[in-house]
Design brief:
alpha+beta; 11-stranded antiparallel β-sheet; 4 helices; disordered N terminus
């Protein structure tokens, strides 16, 4: 369970900027992935030829569970993939491929290195369901990244470095920052990209069920990203351009994690 417990006790800690030092941002290889989502939106309803067997086409076997809600036009299939749980959700006008980490006692949900996990899911979707990507008119990459820090103080100091638009006071509580920095696509100049990021710091707590005593606390910086093609500029070209656009969205998400919001 994620707790935003951000109060620093009277420990004499000063703002690290006032001390004239800065923390070096961690390399991307040290960020872990809590979840990854690749989403595809269509003009009207999802074409019938894209609906059947998507989970099987990606993984190569049958899912563990399949849920169908005919009244809502939703089919959800789920099963293990790449150390996590893969959900394939086919809605009325969108398809989502969601990979979620499994939380282990005394640790955070962890799929592995954020770049490797995201690239692996995208490769699997392209290999097993290339038509889904090519026929979409909007694309989105959602990503939750975690960096485990040594202490609450370290988490705040890192957020201060990651966020150029705000100054993070180490004595503040319940810190949460969200911003969307739009930009034009470098792949298709007719397409505008949203780059939404949500930043926070907190503590993962694991409790024993028998007496609610804590097993282990994990301090972490957490970022939720949603990089997508804007609904103001729908993709009209399709095909290989869509593949390149999704890779651009993934690159934008990874860049925000590595370099921060600016």
């Amino acid at each position: 369970m994620w707790y935003r417990l951000l109060k620093l006790e009277n420990s004499g800690v000063q703002d690290y900027r006032e001390r004239g030092t800065e923390m070096a941002l961690p390399p991307l290889e040290e960020w872990r992935s809590e979840s990854v989502r690749l989403s595809y939106f269509f003009a009207g309803e999802v074409p019938d030829d894209l609906r059947p067997g998507l989970w099987r086409s990606i993984v190569g076997s049958e899912p563990e569970t399949a849920t169908r809600r005919p009244a809502e036009g939703v089919v959800q299939e789920q099963g293990p993939f790449s150390g996590g749980q893969l959900l394939v959700i086919v809605g009325v006008d969108r398809i989502d491929f969601i990979l979620v980490g499994v939380q282990r006692p005394g640790d955070t949900p962890d799929l592995g290195n954020v770049r490797m996990v995201t690239d692996e899911l995208h490769r699997a979707v392209v290999a097993g369901a290339a038509a889904v990507e090519s026929k979409a008119i909007r694309l989105a990459c959602g990503l939750v990244g975690l960096y485990k820090s040594q202490s609450r103080e370290d988490s705040y100091s890192m957020l201060d470095d990651l966020l150029s638009s705000v100054r993070v006071d180490p004595l503040s509580r319940d810190f949460f920052y969200q911003v969307n920095r739009q930009q034009q696509s470098k792949i298709d100049q007719t397409v505008k990209l949203n780059r939404l990021s949500r930043w926070s710091a907190g503590i993962y707590k694991t409790l024993r069920f028998d007496n609610n005593s804590p097993l282990h606390d994990v301090n972490a910086v957490r970022v939720e990203l949603d990089c997508n093609t804007s609904d103001e500029t729908l993709i009209l070209s399709g095909g290989e351009i869509n593949h390149k656009l999704m890779k651009e969205l993934i690159a934008n998400a990874l860049s925000l994690i590595e370099e921060g919001e600016h």
